[in-house]
Amino acid sequence: MTTADNSVQLQALLGMIEADARSTADLTGRGSFSQRVMDAVGAVPRHEFIPNDLSIAAYDNRPLPIGKGQTISQPYIVALMTDLLDPQPGDIVLEVGTGSGYQAAVLSLLVQQVFSTEIIDSLAQAAAQRLSRLGYDNTQIRTCDGYYGWPEEAPFDGILITAATPQVPPPLIEQLRPGGRLVAPLGTPYSHQTLVLLEKDANCTITVRNILPVAFVPLTGSLGEA
User: Fold this and answer.
1) Which of the residues 13, 51, 69, 91 has an alpha carbon 20 to 30 A from that of 63?
2) Is 7 a catalytic residue?
3) In the chain, what are the helix, strand and coil shares in percent, each to the nearest 5?
4) Among residues 73, 100, 108, 116, which one is catalytic?
């Protein structure tokens, strides 16, 4: 799925992700990510998920614009959020904010099924076609307001929100299975955001842990920016 040149760049990117993990260990509590997560990131051809005119930057460890005011996340952040989710092979997970489909592709290599919502229909359609073409057949994309999740497929073992929201939408907490994890950037658009890990225990008690400062585009929709 990658050319020889892309393979070299991808290996360099994995090294940068590992270096970032070590440098942020005091904040995240993890100086490295699981080998399963790193293998998944290393298996996804990031150049397939960005506009052609940005292909030279495909394996840079930074976010890139994908159109419609949206971005593909920094690979380190993708790896961190995925690792925090602790995905298992039998899991059913929900992603809110499909974008280009890159995060969904990484998750698809780690879990049984990925459901992903995207409020911008053109991005949702393009991502669905891209994921299908590349063989990520255990992903399903829906155009909708992700604030409300995907109730008919709930409960989910894990939920990722890939856009900043002032608070975790209550419907998503309801759709998280007891024992599940939710990872999201909380805060105001483009600034004063914190990546958080929310856990729901077997008794449905919620705990939230702050991980590190981040900067994401805002979650949009009927209540996403409320």
Assistant:
1) 91
2) no
3) 40, 25, 35
4) 73
